[in-house]
Amino acid sequence: MAGIDYTSRIPNNVNLASDSRLQRALEKWQPAFLEWWQQMGPEGWQASDVYLRTAISTDKGGWAHFDYVKMPDYRWGIFLNDAEQDRKIHFGDHAGQPAWQEVPGEYRNILRRVIVTQADTEPASVEQQRYLGATAPSLYDLRNLFQVNVEEGRHLWAMVYLLHGYFGRDGREEADELLQRRAGDEDKPRILDAFNQACPDWLTFFCFTTFTDRDGKYQLGALAESGFDPLARTCRFMLTEEAHHLFVGQTGIERVIRRSVELARQDPNGDARAQGGIDLATIQKYVNYWFSYSLDLFGSEVSSNAADFFASGLKGRWKEDKYEDHSALDATLAIAHVEDGRVVDKAIPLRNAMNEVLRGEYVKDCEGVVEKWNRTLEEDGSDFRITLPSTRFHRRQGLYADSCFDPSGAPISAEAFEARRGEWLPSAADREYVHSLMAPVHEPGKMANWIAAPRRGINNMPTDYEYVKRVD
Ligand SMILES: [Fe+2]
Ligand SMILES: [Fe+2]
């Protein structure tokens, strides 16, 4: 049974009551979390009633309960998928051995690092999105923002449970530090770069939830394969929550695209901007920016850390079961390198290429998303097509960070890149323009001019449902 105990202070399905030390430690962390939420969570709106979903069970389907909740009263808790009987480690050097129920001593440090790195992204994204409530294009969108925010908060709980429950004192210290770093802070930044980028407008938010939350999906997917069983079970449940975040991003961009085409058609010169919309060329630039930033999150193309994670059985491939060989010892992967200004493939031992393998799965998924956007463009009679730039374009980490490439992946000089930067990436003027459109719309069912209405509401409610009731 995966039922959740909501009677205790910290909702959970891990029988927290039976471990009073852990329960005490988490109850001590809880007020610090709430203080962080008040300080760094959504600004304003904390007293408002938001139509949110809450997990009631980790069983497949029907796990969510919808109701009006004030965000600070959201029941953040610890939910793990059920344990699989006699689960075995199924890749790497320990394949076939029983999955670990406790932290394997030899891998303690790298395991803690993996968990902390994932954990750090969760509060970071809440901080990045802190001010978006002031400019939501509709109550529907406002509600979705807050749903994403409270669930990122819950993901932090999921990771903190692992740190408190399995790592003792240094785990507790790491959990405290997760509430001390701040997205974009010069002195105490978040660990990964994409999580220090500003998220000042809703086009950015939709790109972030499409591309950066999707990185999360693949990281969680790889950790859901982990031989450390509590981590695997935690990540499996997080993945079910993550799906909504991706939906918010993908359908958000789709609605901006639809509206853009509509407004361009209304304009005598076919100019969406002249009608107060976001032109498709600008959307493309935001896509280029966030796709490339999110690619960095997978780490270096060639990485001995990645090899260690796989060998140790801590981090698998996306859907590891679909592979035949789970040792990855004899195979190689061709990875493009830059040599004397030319791009040449080199065969890299597969274990060292695991970041690239995961990135490849991610890119395929993103291609599917872009295909859907392009189907919308086609249906709406536009000739424009959104494209994903090459994985070499605009990278700041890994093999391509020190060279310049055009969006097709062809090497170019730094001067040539700078000369065309404004065609490929959002310029200050583009950002300013997008920013100038951001004005809140609070009437149920009404949308800001630059975005189309969603096709349907949340939980079968009408699109003009009052998803957020403001209480000042
Ligand atoms: Fe998350
Ligand atoms: Fe997410």
Structure description:
This protein is mainly alpha-helical and 472 residues long. The protein has one domain (16-469): Ribonucleotide Reductase, subunit A, CATH 1.10.620. It has 10 helices and 7 strands. It has helices spanning 20-40, 108-128, 139-178, 202-223, 229-266, 280-296, 304-311, 354-379, 414-424, 428-437, and strands at residues 49-55, 64-70, 332-339, 342-349, 404-405, 411-412, 468-469. The chain is globular and about 70 Å long. 46% of the residues are buried. The mean pLDDT is 96. It binds fe (ii) ion (FE2) (2 copies).
What's the helix and strand layout?
Layout: H1 20-40, E1 49-55, E2 64-70, H2 108-128, H3 139-178, H4 202-223, H5 229-266, H6 280-296, H7 304-311, E3 332-339, E4 342-349, H8 354-379, E5 404-405, E6 411-412, H9 414-424, H10 428-437, E7 468-469
Antiparallel strand pairs: 1-2, 1-7, 3-4, 5-6
Helix pairs in contact: 1-3, 2-3, 3-5, 4-5, 4-6, 4-8, 5-8
Bound molecules: fe (ii) ion (FE2) (2 copies).
